[in-house]
């Protein structure tokens, strides 16, 4: 009965982590949509909604600590629980990057964008797809997928560098574009950091499944 209860509580934690990951993915995608649409109201809702994600992160932490305190998990189980704690923290930071993009949208205000957003949505799609794949690999205990996913971070870095170069050309042609160009570069930087966080998650997954410490960056 004790092990059955433990497995039940562990499964509940997994479901909480899945829910938290979906919130983080939605926040990142929403932040880019808000920026594209120049939608201040949706952006404000996204910023305010970050508190809910933080709360859910604390719920995951509380659930893990409760299991550790009451179920006396063995070494392998402890590794899993500490990995859930680590991954939930990465998800909370990813949601913070989304909030940061929404704040940049507010700072740009009613100004038209100096260039259409093309590569930023591409970065968003790649990073959120990576994140979904990483969480899936954790829940399915798929080590091969966890090793494969970080390879896409190269695409994210290339897009970031491309955005950086393009925006600098806009500034060189018209210095009045400097302020907004810097803010859009920061948007791309936030998305690049999302990719880095996903790589961290994949490293943690591999450690959970194998005990091997890897550097996938």
What's the N-to-C terminus distance?
42 Å
CATH topology: Methane Monooxygenase Hydroxylase, Chain G, domain 1
Provide the domain count: 1
Helix content range of the residues, please? over 70%
Largest sheet data: none
| CATH architecture type | Up-down Bundle
Give a short overview.
The protein is mainly alpha-helical. Helix content is 84%, strand content 0%.
Textual characterization of the structure:
It is a single chain. By secondary structure, this protein is mostly helical. The longest helix is centred in the first third of the chain and has 36 residues, at 2-37. The termini are far apart. It has one domain (2-210): Phosphate transport system protein phou homolog 2, domain 2 (Methane Monooxygenase Hydroxylase, Chain G, domain 1), CATH 1.20.58. The protein is elongated. Helix 1 (2-37) runs parallel beside helix 3 (75-108) and helix 4 packs parallel to helix 7 (178-210). The protein is built from seven helices and no strands. The model has no long low-confidence stretch (mean pLDDT 94). Helices cover 84% and strands 0% of the residues.
